[in-house]
Every structure is written in C-alpha cells, then in structure tokens.
Design a protein that fits this description.
Elements (H helix, E strand, L loop, with lengths): L1 H66 L4 H7 L8 H10 L16 H12 L7 H6 L1
Helix pairs in contact: 1-3
C-alpha cells in the first residue's frame, strides 16, 4: 500500500509539473504570436507610407520631365544628383506615378512571351526579309 501511495504522489507531481510546463509553453506561444502579428503589421504600415511617398516623388519627377521639359538625367541632377537618386530609381518612381493604362511597352522590349510572339509576327511582315535568314546564319 505504501508503494501505491508513493507511486500516486509521484505521478501527481509529474503530471502537475507537465501541466505547468504546458501552460508556460502556451503563454510563450501566445506572446510569440502577438509579436509576429506586430512585426507584420508594422511592416505593412511602413510599406503603405513608402508607397505614398514614392508616388509623390514620381509625380514630381513626371512634372520635371513633362512640364519642365527636362530629360530624366537632368531631373536627377535637379534632385541632388546620383548620390541621392539614380536615373534608374527615378525611372521606377516616375513609372509608379503613371496610371497603368498610360504606360505602354517600349518598342524592342518584351514583358511576356505573348509580347514576343506578337512582336515577332509583326516584325516578320515588316518587309525586312523575315527571320529565316537569321536562323541560317546561326
């Protein structure tokens, strides 16, 4: 009988310890979940602010290039030069501020395989002899 009582006490002690550990882990998981949500929320807020600021910068670059007649390199110089803004970044910002319908692909660039197929068909009929001669030269 002594052995059974000792065994029951030991089992109860072990089960109580395991329950405390599970409770600590559950609390730790709740804290981690909340912190993860806080990180993602802060990043989403940052991205929203950055998008607004980039759109404003792009709109100003559009005005510099279209209304003021500057090319993009000159506009970058007016913004403090390449140390602060590269021409590539300026082009990206300017493009962000344009409505999607206004942005047209530049001839010679391909954004999708469908563009390449369409352009290839158009070029083949343009009287340049087609592309068969190109393949033979390779």
């Amino acid at each position: 009988m002594v052995d059974q009582t000792a065994r029951q006490r030991a089992r109860r002690t072990a089960l109580d310890a395991q329950a405390r550990m599970r409770a600590r882990r559950a609390e730790q998981e709740r804290r981690r979940d909340a912190l993860g949500v806080e990180v993602i929320t802060a990043l989403a807020e940052r991205d929203a602010v950055v998008s607004v600021c980039e759109a404003r910068a792009g709109a100003a670059l559009v005005k510099l290039t279209e209304r003021e007649g500057l090319n993009l390199t000159e506009a970058v110089e007016w913004c403090g030069g390449a140390e602060l803004l590269t021409v590539r970044e300026a082009a990206r910002l300017r493009q962000l501020s344009q409505p999607a319908a206004v942005i047209a692909p530049v001839r010679g660039t391909r954004t999708t395989s469908a563009d390449a197929t369409t352009e290839g068909a158009r070029d083949a009929g343009a009287g340049d002899g087609g592309s068969g001669g190109d393949r033979a030269a390779r």
